[in-house]
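> example.struct
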């Protein structure tokens, strides 16, 4: 039976210290510094107040340790320089010493090691100081011989202030940047824009892989890169000056849109949100990226929140495509940096400029993804705030296949006390949304699918998750709480990979092709297959994925609480065979109790069957919720809980995506998880139908998975509808 030792302490190994003292010095140290007092009986004479001040104090008698005792304590010190009471008592018993003697010996040893380290540091600092002094003298001699370039006489060198020095450096940098951009503009100004390949083309129908990894590509391909992303080449030299000009204008527009209110932003229908006045927008920003294409709809939203993350770390996440797509894995299905035009200056992201492509998603096969080719620009503002802006480059490569254009969108990040940041997010796109299924149109129109509210809610939740991963003061009062720091990190990393794989595989991405099965007795079920070969993170063989989305008249919070609760799992999970589900381990990663990672054990009702372990992550915010799980190997999870590498744990994630239906019912607020509206539920399974990758998929396997998902849907509908009716 799996019983991980979750509450055991974990000692971090310490580096062995190099002994550089000679044998004579070592003996002297042992005699002088490591002779420990064994209590008051080792001292002769009274206190200082009782003695004659003219009388010479009597010599103290010390207890000398044997060579064996010193060697044993030296060896123990290398492993644990701060033993607790229990360890000191055990060591004193083994060596025939008093615990107080052992305590004094370790105190003296730590003091000696600290002094030795400080002496070594002082020597290094003294050497460095001598070098700097010599270099300073050379500079003084050079300055004393300096001459004026104009008259040839001695130069009058005054003291330059610290601020003046930095201003000169900044002026030199800006002058160099202006010269460089001016040279590029002068070289290409007046030349016609060339004809470029289309941003996207109609890909042939083919079986494509599911999940995070190689969507039918080679093992060496970048993460999640399909044919579409690889088909886009970097900008030409003729593009670059126009990209720079577009990015600078977009940054100016983003800052103004974040700071302005009415008449640009007018109150929304619900009285709490803000809507963009398109007429006022065109009046204030007449240039932009051109008029709105025919048939496109404008979506604009603004949202503000305070998140638990340093502003510098936030900027670094946004400017790193891998970190960005990981943090926003529920929104970004694929992303890639095409070319970095500037890495910034002064060792940070200020001035960083990069051309990117990304695919944005909703966790349902009923909502088409949105592909975008854009430039991302980061700049520190005069008041110390940071801004990161995206703007589409579709005007450089016009194509009738483009269905989404990003007008200046992004965020302003303001530093707050105690490591927090205030984030103001702007999301402004023009999109052809005719492919969105009718049941998802209200939630898309409400901005809960692609709008600023979803970006900010996701960022807030993920910042809490990252803070939980770094936490060290974990209370061990509750049974099953993982307090081992390395074990927590490994388990959270494994759960993160599981969530990314689920989100990337459940959407209508152009990287994979769904086949719709009709007549299933439930809502239409979509299936696709992929072959897993030589991937340590997935079991080898043929994997069949099935997904369906439907509406139920139950609030999202009630659906979420039902699906994440291990006590109600037997009501819908057919594969658990009616067994009792028990939570073995738990990691809370947010203020909401629903945001957590759990390790569940299914105790089979049939004694002849082995118990099963399930890794589950549940997460929720005002714009949506996920309950994602995957069966895991017992031996592999033991390794993970002890801080081992989670990348080699094979996962096939299944689960649920729960979105509000976008309707405000009986005064409920759109998007609030406690609202009284209905829910849009997506159910997705991944099943290993054959362990041989070269095997052929049988129709019987498809029928089995189809029946499995249809039966699960009916069980969920019956359970939550009945529960809703009783409330």
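> example.seq
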């Amino acid at each position: 039976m799996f019983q991980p030792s979750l509450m055991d302490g974990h000692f971090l190994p310490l580096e062995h210290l190099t002994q550089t003292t000679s044998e004579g010095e070592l003996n002297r140290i042992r005699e002088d510094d490591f002779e420990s007092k064994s209590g008051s009986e080792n001292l002769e004479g009274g206190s200082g107040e009782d003695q004659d001040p003219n009388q010479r104090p009597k010599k103290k008698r010390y207890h000398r340790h044997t060579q064996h005792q010193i060697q044993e304590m030296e060896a123990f010190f290398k492993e644990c320089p701060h033993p607790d009471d229990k360890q000191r008592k055990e060591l004193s018993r083994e060596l025939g010493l008093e615990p107080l003697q052992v305590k004094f010996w370790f105190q003296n040893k730590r003091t000696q090691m600290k002094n030795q380290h400080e002496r070594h540091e002082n020597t290094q600092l003294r050497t460095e100081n001598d070098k700097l002094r010599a270099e300073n003298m050379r500079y003084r001699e050079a300055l004393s011989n300096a001459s004026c370039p104009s008259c040839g006489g001695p130069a009058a060198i005054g003291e330059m202030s610290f601020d003046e020095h930095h201003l000169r450096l900044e002026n030199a940098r800006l002058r160099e940047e202006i010269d460089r951009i001016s040279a590029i503009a002068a070289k290409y100004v007046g030349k016609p824009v060339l004809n470029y390949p289309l941003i996207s083309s109609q890909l042939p129908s083919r079986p494509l892989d599911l999940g995070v990894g190689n969507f039918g590509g080679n093992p060496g391909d970048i993460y999640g890169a399909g044919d579409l992303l690889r088909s886009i080449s970097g900008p030409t030299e003729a593009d670059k000056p126009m990209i720079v000009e577009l990015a600078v204008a977009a940054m100016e527009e983003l800052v103004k849109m974040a700071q302005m209110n009415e008449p640009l932003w007018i109150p929304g229908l619900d009285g709490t949100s803000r809507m963009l006045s398109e007429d006022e927008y065109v009046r204030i920003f007449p240039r932009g990226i051109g008029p709105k294409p025919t048939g496109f709809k404008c979506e604009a939203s603004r949202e503000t929140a305070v998140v638990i993350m340093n502003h510098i770390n936030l900027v670094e996440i946004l400017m790193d495509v891998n970190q960005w797509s990981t943090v926003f894995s529920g929104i970004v299905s694929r992303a890639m940096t095409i070319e970095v035009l500037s890495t910034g200056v002064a060792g940070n992201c200020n001035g960083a400029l990069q051309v990117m492509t990304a695919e944005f998603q909703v966790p349902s096969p009923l909502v088409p993804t949105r592909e975008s080719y854009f430039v991302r620009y980061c700049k520190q503002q005069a008041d110390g705030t940071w801004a990161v802006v995206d703007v589409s480059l579709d005007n450089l490569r016009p194509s009738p296949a483009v269905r989404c254009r990003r007008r200046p969108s992004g965020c302003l990040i303001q530093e707050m006390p105690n490591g927090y940041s205030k984030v103001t997010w702007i999301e402004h796109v023009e999109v052809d949304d005719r492919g969105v299924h009718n049941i998802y149109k209200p939630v898309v129109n409400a901005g809960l699918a692609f709008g600023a509210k979803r970006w900010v809610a996701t960022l807030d939740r993920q910042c809490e998750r990252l803070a939980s991963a770094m936490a060290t003061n974990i209370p061990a009062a509750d049974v099953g709480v993982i307090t081992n720091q390395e074990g927590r990190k490994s388990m959270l990393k494994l759960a993160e990979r599981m969530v990314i794989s689920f989100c990337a595989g459940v959407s209508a991405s152009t990287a994979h092709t769904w086949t719709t099965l009709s007549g299933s007795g439930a809502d239409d079920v979509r299936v696709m297959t992929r072959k897993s070969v030589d991937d340590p993170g997935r079991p080898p063989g043929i994997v069949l994925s099935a997904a369906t989305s439907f509406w139920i008249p139950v609030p999202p919070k009630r659906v979420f609480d039902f699906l994440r609760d291990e006590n109600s799992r037997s009501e819908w999970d057919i594969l658990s065979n009616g067994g009792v589900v028990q939570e073995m381990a738990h990691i809370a990663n947010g203020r909401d109790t629903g945001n957590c990672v759990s390790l569940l054990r299914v105790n089979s009702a049939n004694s002849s069957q082995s118990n099963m372990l399930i890794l589950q992550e549940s997460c929720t915010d005002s714009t949506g919720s996920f309950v994602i799980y995957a069966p895991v190997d017992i031996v592999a999870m033991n390794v993970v809980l002890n801080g081992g590498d989670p990348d080699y744990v094979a996962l096939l994630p299944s689960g649920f995506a729960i979105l509000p239906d976008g309707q405000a019912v009986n005064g409920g607020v759109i998007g609030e998880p406690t609202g009284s509206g209905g829910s849009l539920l997506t159910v997705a399974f991944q099943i290993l139908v054959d362990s041989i990758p070269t095997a052929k998929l049988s129709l019987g396997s498809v029928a089995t998975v189809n029946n499995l998902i249809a039966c699960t849907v009916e069980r969920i509908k019956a359970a939550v509808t009945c529960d809703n009716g009783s409330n």
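> remarks
The longest strand covers residues 541-552.
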